[in-house]
Amino acid sequence: MVDAGAPAAREAAARVWRSRTCAELEAAARFSRLAEQLAAAGAVDPVIAMARHAAEDERRHAAQCAALVRELGGAPFDPGAAPEAPAVAPRGLGARERLLYEVVAMSCITETLSAALLGEMVERATDPRIRDTMQQILRDEVDHARLGWAHLAAERQRGCADVIGPHVPAMLAGTVHEELFSSRAEHPEQDALSGLGALDRAERRRIFDETMRLVVFPGLRRFGIDTGRGEQWLTERLP
Ligand SMILES: [Fe+2]
Ligand SMILES: [Fe+2]
Fold first, then answer.
1. Ligand lying nearest the CA atom of residue 112
2. What is the C-alpha separation between 233 and 125, in angstroms, rounded?
3. Which of 108, 110, 119, 180 has the fewest CB atoms found within 10 Å of its own CB?
4. What is the distance between the alpha carbons of residues 58 and 218, in angstroms, rounded to a whole number?
5. How much is the pTM?
């Protein structure tokens, strides 16, 4: 039973977990679509299988997040409010490049960041039920990132040129909310909130910056992607 924290922190945490329920459902829709597109494009079998598996994982994550919302006393999540997952790749790219864009943005960037954030949140969690849920989700998110690197490696082997480099800034902007860069005051119960799985903005900014610079950019460069524009974008947004 989730019982740690002041009522205001529990209420705020319920809102965070509710928005995560939505994000997990959106991820499920995205991976379902990517699995179909990867199969249609003749991607390597392990990558197609990982994408299908990821879609199932994300549906389970959504149910786990919704259970935490209930335990925190939040209003039940309406499954009818499940978000769509529109394609994010620019129309100017060819079909194969658009698919690569979607996979890199979703797996290599968003899922890698998600795993880094969850790792930190697990460390800070004071509530055992919340910590346990985040640990389970974290294990899957690491696999979801791997599928992106595997697809990128396979495409690189087929001789795909660097179509990603110019779009890294857009991918970074798309993976975080504008709220990350705001200077609004933190929640007054932020310490309790961190224990319930919601880090403060400064921490999330630090993790975003470090994960991109130390994990994502070096990973992309290994596959011949020029990350110069991405690095510049990050320096401008997080001086
Ligand atoms: Fe997830
Ligand atoms: Fe995921």
1. 2
2. 31
3. 180
4. 27
5. 0.94
193-228 core/surface letters (b: 16 or more CB in 10 A; e: else) = bbbbbbbebebbbebbeebbbebbbebbeebebebe
Distance (Å) from CA 161 to ligand 1 centroid:
30
Ligand 2 geometric centre to CA of 76 (Å): 22
pLDDT tens for each residue of the chain, 239 residues long: 455 557 889 999 999 999 999 999 999 999 999 999 999 999 999 999 999 999 999 999 999 999 999 999 998 877 777 778 888 999 889 999 999 999 999 999 999 999 999 999 999 999 999 999 999 999 999 999 999 999 999 999 998 888 999 999 999 999 999 889 888 888 888 888 999 999 999 999 999 999 999 999 999 999 999 999 999 999 999 98
Span from the CA of 111 to the centroid of ligand 2 (angstroms): 6
Query: Could you tell me the domains of the chain?
Result: 7-180+188-237 (1.20.1260.10)
